Structure formats: C-alpha cells, structure tokens
Amino acid sequence: MGMQTHADYRLSQLEELESESIHVFREVAAEFEKPVLMFSGGKDSIVMMRLAEKAFYPAKLPFPVLQVDTGFDFPEVLATRDEWVDRLGVRLIIASVEQAIANRIVVDDGKTSRNRLQIGTLLHVIEEHGFTAAIGGGRRDEEKARAKERIYSHRDEFSQWDPKNQRPELWNLYNARLHPGEHMRIFPLSNWTELDVWHYIGHEGISIPSIYFAHQRRVFERDGMLLSESEHNPLQDGETVSERTVRFRTVGDLTLTGCIESTASTIDEIIDEISVARLTERGATRGDDRFSEAAMEDRKKEGYF
Description:
Number of helices: 9
Shape: globular
Radius of gyration: 20 Å
Structural class: alpha/beta
CATH architecture of the largest domain: 3-Layer(aba) Sandwich
Largest sheet: 6 strands, mixed
Strand order of the largest sheet: 3-2-1-4-6-5
Distance between the termini: 60 Å
Order of helices and strands: HEHEHEHHEEEHEEEEHHH
Low-confidence stretches: 289-294
CATH class of the largest domain: Alpha Beta
Helix content: 25-40%
CATH superfamily of the largest domain: HUPs
C-alpha cells in the first residue's frame, strides 16, 4: 500500500501578508463611511494599490486616491502615479502644498520644509472632503515611531496622534468607532518589511518608478547624503556636483530624499542589496527623519502619516 500524500495548503509568508492586507482593505470599505487611499506613486503605495485592486476585483476601488503634492516630486514617480490611476480608473485627488500656501492654509516661512507643510495640507483635505479613514503605507520596520502604530491608528478631532491612547487589536478585530470630527489612519502594510515589499513587487511583476533601479545621476553630498542636482536644490558653499551610479530606496520630496550609490538594476539585485543593509531606508536617505531621534514621532503627533 503506497503512502498517502496530502496537498500542502499552507500559505507562504508573502501570501499571509497579502491576505491580511486584503482583509484590512475590505474591513475599511465595510466599516467607514468615507475612506481614501494615500497614493504617492512610491513603492509602498503601489503595493497598496495592487492589494486594493485584488481586494475589490472585478469591481473598481470603492474610494478615491489622494496624493499630497509638495511641488518637489520626482517626475518619474508622478508618471507612475498617473499610469496606475488611468489603468484602475480611480478618482485622483491632488492636495497641492503650493496651493495650500497660496490659500494661506499653511505658511511658508522659508525655513519649514515642504515635507512638513504636507501636514497642514493633508489635514485640510481630510476635513474638506470629510474623510473618515485615510489609508497609508507606513511600515513598522521603517522608523521607531511607526513601530508604535496599530493597524487602525486613531486620530482625535484635532487630527493628532496619541501613541499612549491607541486601541487594542486582538485576533484581527479592529475598532472603527469614531466621534464626530475624528478620523482613523489605516496601515495595511504594518507587518510588511522593506524586503517583503520588494519580494511582492517581483512576485507580482508590478511596474514601479525607474529611479528605484541603478541609473546615472548628477548628485552632490550634503549632511552625509547624496542629493539630486535640481533648480529646487541650490548648491551651498563647498558643494560640488558629480555624476554617479545611484538608485533611490525611498522617494519623496527631491530636496530631502537622498539616493545611494548602487549598481542594482534588477529586483533580485535590490533584494540582495537590502538583505545586508544595516540602515532602514528612511534612516539612510530621508533628511526629514534625521533632525532628531523623535523627528517622525513629532510629525505624526501633528498629523503626519
């Protein structure tokens, strides 16, 4: 009598992460009156778009997508954003920092970074449209403050985050109750790492901005980071531009987002590179997170993602 073989129905780690995130998206659509998905065109928000697409397929996404535009975004990232929006036929809301300055919603004092001015711009749009849940791509491995997050992150009527006053989350049960004026930030990628994101992009064959891969770029060094030459980035005394082979681990405001020297031009090469990296992508290349140990936590308390 031959041995009986059983099919292995266990999910891989990536399939488990995907399943959990899809569950979160469906819960949000079922529980909240007016959700919105934050979509910058960066790798994490693209993975979220794919997960949302799978969660509701063959229907369209049951909520709009929102980008907070600093005016200093990489053109390659905006092009990818538009491709996704066109393909999925979703409604794109663009909250412009430039417009918010012009309308005196936020004040440009010449010292505050555009990234910080995103906070007031975002809060104004959430209030204006009455969004009750904003879905973002924050991951716990990115940064210390984000490691304190729940998947459902409660914000009070002033849109502030109190890390000591978050709700318990047991057995994938999420508390979506809100008082008038409050809203929830939702983080479907909470349990993903940077490596998981790249494995998923490779597994799904997802199209992402070209600047994540090695390319030639004119850069200069500032505060230990390589920044892009640009009219938005005037050189300071002693800084010189050189052409190097680089790629970006994270994309954001080009005046603050550094690149790394790298020859990784395929997803497999990027995975190999990240596997041995000692610094998180934000710690290595995001100027706005390097002001202090608590820089991100301070911004999150004010209403940042």
